[in-house]
Please model this.
Amino acid sequence: MPEAVDLKVSKTSTQKALALLRKLALLNSKLKLERENDYIHIPLTRMPLANELEELRKNLHRPQISKREFLKIHEQQTRLVDLLSEELPPHMLASLPHAVDFVGDIAVVEVPPELEPHKSIIGAAILKAHKRVRTVLSKWSPVSGVYRLRTFEVIGGEAKTQTVHREHGCVYHVDLAKAYFSSRLSYEHLRVASLVKEGEAVVDMFAGIGPFSILAARKHAVIRVYAIDMNPYAYKLLMKNIAVNRVVGKVTAIVGDARQVVNERLNGVADRVIMNLPEKAIEYVDVACKALKPEGGVIHYYQFVDTPEPLDAARHRFTEAVKQTNRSIHRILETRIVRGIAPFKYQVVVDAEIK
Model:
């Protein structure tokens, strides 16, 4: 199945979204729309430009853009519910997982408790529906710990957690059990890398295996990226990914806690700081401010929010944290919902210019 830029909107906004996309010449008419609960995934021909994104946000309620695999119009749609209609009791079909994350040739799903006895059947169905998938993993625990890891159970195919994932022209060696990586952040990786300016110095405080750092380095001829992570195994994969993507000399991998690394090596070096650790980024705002050059720069701050007004809440919390440092916010450049985590819980990013 081909991968395309995905515009996710509520079902009630579908017709309005389609009309707007046709007007902007963004609708991919060769691929099928897909339904997910109360949302519709619409395939686009390309990534919207800045002014097009602004128009989409102005006219649609909380549109979300990422990457997703779509069926071609002429292909027969194979859904889990169709494949399992004769394998599971009818009352269980409604509980089947709607979202499948693809990382390389691994599919990751969350099997609800009531379907645990049938997880091997679900794994076999996913392998049948997605021919390029070699392994199906079920999330066994939430992301936790200082290394942001979760445990998985193999419910179909080869018993492995290692794979090679391709995204925006980059190649990433991944081990989902040993180093954090989310394919759902594909658009965010591209968005931030596209905002980086030629000649900048960037500090990626929680780099993981390098999707922000490496893509930024690939997109710019003159750039210096300092990619920090405290997970020794993530650091090993990061070093490997720097080599295979040919950004040696542009990206410097550093293993250690971001606070200590900035204090000892990176005080005042950055034009831009990336803080993709939504569970704990608030605790490192002072470190990010310290990493910026004396004249200031840009911070991309990520946070989980479960309040009724997530954008306002994230802006307020970040603003208050900056006030506790010797810096101040010149202006908020953008605040957006990156993705939904759970009902009424979101990952939010605040882009701010700091002086």
Observations:
- The CA atoms of residues 63 and 203 lie 29 Å apart.
